[in-house]
């Protein structure tokens, strides 16, 4: 790890000023940043520690059902906040399916949004990576890429975004509050992360010094609470990144789907909202045929970026299952194995 | 009460109550309080930190470093490269013995695998040494990497594993196959795997003149000491190795490796104690791995399901500069009755670190392939997999015709099947679902591992106060040597456990042999027992020749040593305490010596193996292909059980490795560069707690009068075998899909 | 640039003058305070061997910069037993043979203490397994670990009822 200057600003304004300098990076829990620094992937010359900034560690529930979550709220605290998990159960389930209890105790909401890809070629300094070094090339193409992107990738980058948390946030229309030198602005989560295009080094809309201060979920997002799930297929039962995941949330009226929200994880360099699939479900019966139609729509335009064609059909099946699970109703409590296919299914079997 | 005579010497018997007891780990309190001191926990005064710089290319030459950047980093004291590395007396590329593997210790600028050490940075702090290593930024002249089992021209190795013939033939396989009613030919692939002990390889080295003191985890202190002595040109007696605890070894800490030597060299260079610990990713190069295999198995049976032939031709890989050939095909030699058997190996030379012994070397990859093939054969014969195995039960070792020294495999099958509920298994696949609709499958496998012994020595002392001291330089890497060997030591001296002091884990103690091959308890145990017998014999000699002793004249009848007293064998009422005997003889202590080693006559006469039967349940998501091994029952027979609690833990741990082999772990290598792309514990998946919800290990009684005087076989490795195949077979039974490429990935199961 | 950091470690106050802001809590404990019970298995938050309680919460010490934890309270494996008496989790690990090589054990135990304090697992073995899945054990002692956690949790609950 390179040496760096460690600064502890007392106010958000001081933090933004300190982090605007070239080479500066924000430090919260450090669960991702320190990993990157130890690998030499990130070499910031100044760490701006935000842990002491006032007011960023609160979960504020609005009377209308919406919520504002400070950027320093720890993943575990958010997942176990009773009001939050009641209103946004798919988000709680996604949080609890990520990493380990130790990491969830440390990792913050803001940091989760900003975590970097797990692409092995991004981590391997001897490999070419356009994200690490613009213009260097992408060794993931033609490499070991069975878990890489099938949506939204470009010739310059086929990595995926590793967050679980962001997937239901994308589905539920979250907004990111950003503090900058010019003041505070809101950015929809869907616009927060950028697809790689020709500039995969630009991962978000953040400009130097910009600080994520909170994430908001609107009141309407809580209207899906009775039918909201997160489902994550992994290569071991726990403590693993998603091969593919999906968040599905339904608003049911008189036995039909009034409104659906769907997003996928592990398929693209950002949490992937499936608007077409949602549209296909409006007014539909909650049955296997509807879910399969939605799943087909969700993967429209998907293409393998390497040896990962299986992920496309896998993702369709995961979307369909997540929808079926959501239709079956949110369980009383997050299952013992959160978001796992091996979590006991409430009610009747949802398997084919 | 283990009332079995512990000695083969007929004159005197020793009875003890320790062997067979499920004692808790004697090192448990140290380990649960953080007091157990592992190598990297040492911090001698003046110590510096050393960090390796390793190669990123697989093959080529180092052209240079940015030495100024590294040396200019605050805290960096020295950078060791081939230019300034202290000289060695011995050649690190020499091959004095088959157990001396070539190592990379900055002897030149060649790079022969990724993660090869190319320099060492020594600094006042760990942070400075780590960054100094990063700043070195080696420049390379790279050559194309040879990667994968088709990456080079295969060659025929002379020997495989620890020196076995590379091929074996018994009967005529081709005619057996021609005559068969059912035939199978299938190819199975297993990946490269890395030991990934939780404790990274570490050494703290301190020189005092030409004497060397090191703390390092070692499964073989005596061999390590000898190799260091040869490399540095100093006498072995001048080298002290402390290795009281290993944070797991699994074969990767058996023999001296390059990073350990670099730590010693670094300490030499700077004239101060040095600590060198590998970073996790650096464990994917210079400290061994299990090579990948591709095994082509051919089998035939007659109409009734009896084998007519079994053949396995295995391809594996070794490094470009040394030979370790994973003996994958050999597991067929002793398992199933067949009139014709043929095994062979070839290998390719790749730009990797040299493969090495890794828990059940050969047996683990061989077993998953063989047990999968046996399952396929049973299916072809329309037979239940257990019935098929019983049909082909080997009453003598098929490859040699020797009888087994003992073999309670039928009982393992029976007890395991009963406990698991195997009789309720539907024959056809894809017939079982759980209440949630997940596919459920049941599979089984036979476990086997040879009962080996190395040579080991021990010393036992009876002291004037009636207590005992037993010493052997054994290695506890988690198997429970501190406990099990102490139990043997107590019984060996006829003393309660709390009246002996057991010393181990130090190179100044008698060489206990290598902790490998599941042979350590047998080897060191027999040495300890013999040392105890020797001490008791001397004590009995004192007493029976002394007119003042109640045991006078009992020399012909013999004595029984029990609970700190010697009793006349023909009149147990006449006895005397150890302390009294010694006191009257005016002796402060009496010493016995013992050696444990295989008996060549018994080995020639008998085939010696531990056996077991493993039954697995898996659940598979029918659409996603995600697999979870929800239940495992293993029943094992391995001769005498010294400590059932510890033996059960060994079996369960081995079963977890079997699950990992079948479902989880593999090194993912870039075909262009030869670099392992998942050299970390996030993406090199070993099972987590949630992956193994239900494990049961049954200890099946087995008495073996031939294997060694204690009747002990090994338990450390056997449970991987059988389990891996059982899990794979359960996946077939759940899904109807035969996976022949391991670990089983979800894309193999989802039909897309 | 020096940083002066106050920490309470196992109940004892420490003033750490940090010349190097790169020092992690794990390396501080091991290499500067010589509390080596906390182990380094991966140094990247991928194995759990370095788990300590940081302000009462189980955390990977390898990813915690000391500089960011001024005023924190740290409990390590060395501070768990009190007055020569093993903590119930420690005792249960021995009783259930929930360890082999012992290298992951301090992290497992601190994680178990954290899990019990969190109170989300209840008596459900599946929740314990999931909750302990951030601690790798290459020896494969998981079955004993799960039994030990459940056993110790029960003992602690009965103990606090009795008190």
UniProtKB/TrEMBL annotation, chain A:
<dbReference type="InterPro" id="IPR016166">
    <property type="entry name" value="FAD-bd_PCMH"/>
</dbReference>
<protein>
    <submittedName>
        <fullName>Periplasmic aromatic aldehyde oxidoreductase, FAD binding subunit YagS</fullName>
    </submittedName>
</protein>
<keyword id="KW-0285">Flavoprotein</keyword>
<dbReference type="InterPro" id="IPR002346">
    <property type="entry name" value="Mopterin_DH_FAD-bd"/>
</dbReference>
<dbReference type="InterPro" id="IPR005107">
    <property type="entry name" value="CO_DH_flav_C"/>
</dbReference>
<dbReference type="GO" id="GO:0071949">
    <property type="term" value="F:FAD binding"/>
</dbReference>
<dbReference type="InterPro" id="IPR016167">
    <property type="entry name" value="FAD-bd_PCMH_sub1"/>
</dbReference>
<dbReference type="InterPro" id="IPR036683">
    <property type="entry name" value="CO_DH_flav_C_dom_sf"/>
</dbReference>
<dbReference type="InterPro" id="IPR016169">
    <property type="entry name" value="FAD-bd_PCMH_sub2"/>
</dbReference>
<keyword id="KW-0274">FAD</keyword>
<dbReference type="Pfam" id="PF03450">
    <property type="entry name" value="CO_deh_flav_C"/>
</dbReference>
<dbReference type="Pfam" id="PF00941">
    <property type="entry name" value="FAD_binding_5"/>
</dbReference>
<dbReference type="InterPro" id="IPR051312">
    <property type="entry name" value="Diverse_Substr_Oxidored"/>
</dbReference>
<dbReference type="InterPro" id="IPR036318">
    <property type="entry name" value="FAD-bd_PCMH-like_sf"/>
</dbReference>
<dbReference type="GO" id="GO:0016491">
    <property type="term" value="F:oxidoreductase activity"/>
</dbReference>
<feature type="domain" description="FAD-binding PCMH-type">
    <location>
        <begin position="1"/>
        <end position="222"/>
    </location>
</feature>
């Amino acid at each position: 790890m390179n040496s760096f200057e460690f600064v502890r600003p007392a106010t958000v304004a001081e933090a933004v000023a300190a982090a605007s300098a070239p080479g500066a990076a924000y430090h919260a829990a450090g669960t991702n940043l320190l990993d990157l620094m130890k690998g030499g992937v990130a070499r910031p010359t100044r760490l701006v520690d935000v842990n002491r900034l006032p007011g960023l560690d609160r979960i504020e529930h609005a009377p209308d059902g919406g919520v504002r979550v400070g950027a320093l709220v720890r993943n575990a605290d958010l997942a176990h906040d009773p009001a939050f998990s009641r209103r946004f159960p798919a988000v709680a389930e996604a949080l609890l399916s990520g990493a380990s209890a130790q990491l969830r105790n440390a990792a913050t909401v803001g940091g989760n949004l900003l975590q970097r890809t797990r692409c092995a070629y991004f981590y391997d300094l001897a490999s070419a990576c356009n994200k690490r070094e613009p213009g260097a090339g992408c060794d993931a193409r033609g490499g070991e890429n069975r878990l890489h992107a099938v949506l939204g990738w470009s010739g310059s980058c086929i990595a995926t975004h590793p967050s679980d948390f962001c997937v239901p946030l994308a589905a539920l229309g979250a907004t990111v509050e950003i503090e900058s030198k010019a003041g505070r602005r809101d950015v929809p989560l869907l616009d927060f992360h950028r697809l790689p295009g020709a500039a995969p080094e630009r991962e978000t809309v953040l400009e130097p010094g910009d600080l994520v201060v909170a994430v908001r979920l609107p009141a309407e997002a809580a209207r899906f609470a009775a039918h909201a799930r997160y489902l994550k297929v992994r290569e071991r039962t726990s403590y693993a990144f998603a091969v593919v995941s999906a968040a599905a949330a339904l608003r049911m009226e008189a036995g039909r789907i009034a409104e659906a929200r769907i997003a996928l994880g592990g398929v693209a360099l950002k949490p992937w909202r499936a608007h077409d699939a949602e549209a296909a479900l409006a007014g539909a019966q909650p049955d296997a045929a509807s879910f399969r139609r939605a799943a087909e729509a969700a993967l429209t335009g998907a293409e393998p970026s390497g040896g990962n064609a299986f992920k496309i059909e896998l993702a369709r099946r995961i979307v369909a299952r997540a929808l079926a699970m959501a239709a079956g109703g949110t369980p009383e409590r997050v299952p013992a194995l959160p978001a796992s296919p091996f979590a006991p299914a409430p009610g009747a079997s949802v398997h084919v | 009460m283990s009332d079995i005579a512990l000695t083969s010497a007929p004159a005197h018997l020793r009875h003890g109550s320790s062997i067979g007891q499920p004692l808790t780990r004697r090192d448990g309190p140290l380990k649960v309080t953080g007091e157990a001191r592992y190598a990297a926990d040492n911090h001698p005064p003046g110590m510096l930190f050393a960090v390796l710089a390793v190669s990123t290319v697989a093959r080529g030459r180092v052209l240079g470093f940015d030495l100024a950047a590294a040396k200019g980093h605050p805290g960096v004291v020295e950078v060791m490269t081939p230019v300034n590395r202290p000289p060695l007396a011995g050649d690190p590329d020499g091959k004095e013995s088959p157990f001396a593997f070539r190592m990379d210790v900055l002897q030149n600028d060649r790079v022969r695998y990724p993660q090869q050490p190319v320099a060492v940075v020594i600094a006042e702090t760990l942070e400075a040494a780590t960054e100094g290593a990063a700043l070195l930024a080696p420049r390379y002249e790279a050559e194309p990497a040879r990667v994968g089992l088709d990456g080079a021209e295969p060659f025929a190795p002379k020997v495989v594993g620890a020196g076995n013939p590379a091929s074996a033939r018994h009967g005529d396989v081709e005619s057996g196959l021609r005559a068969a009613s059912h035939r199978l030919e299938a190819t199975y692939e297993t990946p490269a795997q890395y030991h990934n002990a939780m404790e990274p390889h570490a050494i703290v080295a301190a020189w005092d003149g030409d004497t060397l003191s090191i703390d390092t985890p070692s499964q073989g202190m005596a061999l390590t000491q000898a190799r260091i002595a040869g490399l540095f040109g100093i006498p072995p007696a001048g080298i002290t190795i402390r290795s009281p605890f290993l944070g797991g070894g699994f074969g990767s800490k058996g023999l001296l490796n390059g990073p350990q030597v670099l730590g010693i060299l670094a300490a030499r260079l700077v004239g101060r104690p040095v600590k060198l610990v590998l970073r996790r990713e650096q464990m994917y190069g210079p400290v061994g791995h299990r090579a990948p295999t591709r095994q082509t198995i051919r089998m035939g049976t007659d109409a009734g399901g009896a084998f007519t032939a079994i053949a396995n031709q295995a391809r594996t890989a070794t490094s470009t500069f040394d030979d370790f050939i994973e003996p994958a095909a050999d597991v067929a030699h002793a398992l199933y009755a067949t009139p014709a058997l043929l095994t062979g190996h070839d290998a390719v030379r790749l730009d990797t670190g040299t493969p090495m012994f890794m828990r059940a070397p050969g047996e683990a990859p061989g077993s998953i392939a063989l047990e999968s093939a046996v399952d396929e054969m049973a299916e072809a014969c329309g037979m239940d997999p257990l019935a098929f195995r019983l049909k082909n039960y080997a009453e003598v070792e098929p490859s040699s015709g020797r009888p087994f020294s003992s073999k309670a495999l039928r009982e393992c099958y029976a007890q395991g099947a009963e406990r698991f509920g195997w009789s309720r298994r539907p024959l056809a696949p894809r017939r079982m679902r759980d209440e949630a609709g997940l596919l459920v499958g049941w599979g089984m496998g036979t476990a086997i591992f040879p009962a080996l012994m190395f040579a080991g020595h021990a010393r036992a002392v009876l002291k004037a106060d009636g207590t005992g001291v037993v010493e052997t330089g054994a290695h506890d890497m988690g198997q429970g040597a501190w406990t099990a060997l102490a139990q043997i030591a107590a019984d060996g001296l006829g003393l309660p456990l709390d009246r002996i002091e057991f010393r181990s884990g130090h190179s100044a103690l008698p060489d206990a042999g290598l902790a490998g091959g599941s042979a350590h308890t047998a080897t060191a145990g027999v040495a300890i027992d013999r040392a105890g017998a020797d001490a008791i014999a001397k004590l009995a000699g004192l007493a029976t020749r002394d007119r003042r002793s109640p045991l006078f004249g009992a020399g012909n009848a013999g004595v029984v040593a029990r609970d700190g007293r010697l009793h006349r064998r023909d009149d147990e009422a006449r006895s005397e305490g150890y302390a009294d005997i010694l006191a009257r003889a005016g002796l402060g202590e009496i010493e016995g010596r013992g050696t444990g080693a295989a008996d060549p006559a018994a080995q020639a006469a008998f085939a010696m193996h531990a056996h077991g039967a493993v039954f697995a349940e898996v659940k598979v998501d029918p659409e996603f292909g995600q697999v979870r091994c929800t239940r495992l029952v293993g029943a094992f027979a391995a001769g005498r059980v010294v400590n059932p609690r510890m033996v059960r833990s060994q079996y369960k741990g081995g079963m977890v490795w079997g699950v990992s082999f079948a479902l989880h772990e593999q090194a993912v290598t870039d075909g262009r560069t030869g670099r392992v792309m998942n050299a970390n514990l996030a993406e090199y998946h070993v099972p987590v707690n949630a992956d193994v919800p239900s494990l049961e290990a049954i200890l099946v009684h087995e008495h073996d009068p031939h294997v060694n005087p204690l009747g002990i076989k090994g338990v450390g490795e056997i449970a991987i075998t059988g389990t891996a195949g059982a899990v794979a077979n359960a996946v077939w039974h759940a899904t109807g899909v035969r996976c022949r490429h391991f670990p089983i990935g979800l894309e193999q199961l989802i039909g897309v | 640039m020096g940083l002066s950091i106050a920490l309470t470690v196992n109940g004892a106050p420490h003033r750490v003058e940090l010349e190097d802001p790169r020092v992690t809590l794990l390396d501080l404990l091991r290499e500067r305070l010589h509390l080596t019970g906390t182990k380094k298995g991966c140094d990247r938050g991928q194995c759990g061997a370095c788990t300590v309680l940081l302000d009462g919460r189980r955390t990977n010490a390898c990813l915690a910069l000391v500089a960011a934890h001024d005023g924190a309270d740290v409990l390590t494996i060395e501070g768990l037993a009190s007055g020569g008496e093993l903590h119930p989790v420690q005792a249960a690990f021995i009783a259930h043979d929930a360890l082999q090589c012992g290298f992951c054990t301090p992290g497992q135990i601190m994680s178990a203490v954290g899990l019990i304090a969190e109170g989300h697992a209840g008596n459900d073995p599946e929740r314990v397994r999931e909750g302990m899945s951030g601690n790798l054990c290459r020896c494969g002692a998981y079955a004993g670990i799960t039994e030990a956690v459940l056993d110790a949790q029960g003992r602690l609950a009965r103990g606090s009822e009795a008190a």
